[in-house]
């Protein structure tokens, strides 16, 4: 399909165009803009979610009374419909919402911020939203990994005078390598396919400056709004290649760090 020019409404008129779709895709500035946006978003999301989820997992590991209650509370955002969660988030973060009002009352903002019309704010704010929405999944994965670590390793380290930070970097992180690798891989694969969040807030152009445009949103626009299914298929394959490259680089970096 990526080697054809196919109109959704007239599939019988499909014609072979060779690698023309691929050339257009590589030269398409909107595709690269969408790719930059999602990489910008994911760099914030992955770092923020990793810190929060691992921190909460370490905390829950030490809690004995009421641990199940805390896990349930933290997991509520995950089971909440993403459409409902986005409506709540959009209200909270709106110029007239409670978050901006509190920030203005304490002097953190001089006035309301219309972040959906900003050039740089949409992706960081969506990264914060997704971190809140999905951190509990990673927290449970890390918690499961933490519970498998032999406690005698920590006891031996404390006998040798190792501080908490030394134990964390020398014992906890290296032994959590399988969980970290799995979480990071899933983050890249799922994050690069972000669609619902931006589809609910922005138009198919990704809003002003295309600041909310993501590769999947652009793919959807190309296939179902522009009716160019062949080119949309090409964009989908280009995105798959990018995800494969990023995942491979990530695996090599994590494995190299683990070996060192």
TrEMBL record:
<feature type="transmembrane region" description="Helical">
    <location>
        <begin position="229"/>
        <end position="249"/>
    </location>
</feature>
<keyword id="KW-1133">Transmembrane helix</keyword>
<keyword id="KW-0472">Membrane</keyword>
<feature type="transmembrane region" description="Helical">
    <location>
        <begin position="38"/>
        <end position="60"/>
    </location>
</feature>
<dbReference type="InterPro" id="IPR050809">
    <property type="entry name" value="UgpAE/MalFG_permease"/>
</dbReference>
<feature type="transmembrane region" description="Helical">
    <location>
        <begin position="72"/>
        <end position="93"/>
    </location>
</feature>
<dbReference type="InterPro" id="IPR035906">
    <property type="entry name" value="MetI-like_sf"/>
</dbReference>
<comment type="similarity">
    <text>Belongs to the binding-protein-dependent transport system permease family.</text>
</comment>
<keyword id="KW-0813">Transport</keyword>
<keyword id="KW-1003">Cell membrane</keyword>
<keyword id="KW-0812">Transmembrane</keyword>
<keyword id="KW-0762">Sugar transport</keyword>
<protein>
    <submittedName>
        <fullName>ABC-type sugar transport system permease subunit</fullName>
    </submittedName>
</protein>
<feature type="transmembrane region" description="Helical">
    <location>
        <begin position="180"/>
        <end position="202"/>
    </location>
</feature>
<feature type="domain" description="ABC transmembrane type-1">
    <location>
        <begin position="35"/>
        <end position="250"/>
    </location>
</feature>
<dbReference type="Pfam" id="PF00528">
    <property type="entry name" value="BPD_transp_1"/>
</dbReference>
<dbReference type="InterPro" id="IPR000515">
    <property type="entry name" value="MetI-like"/>
</dbReference>
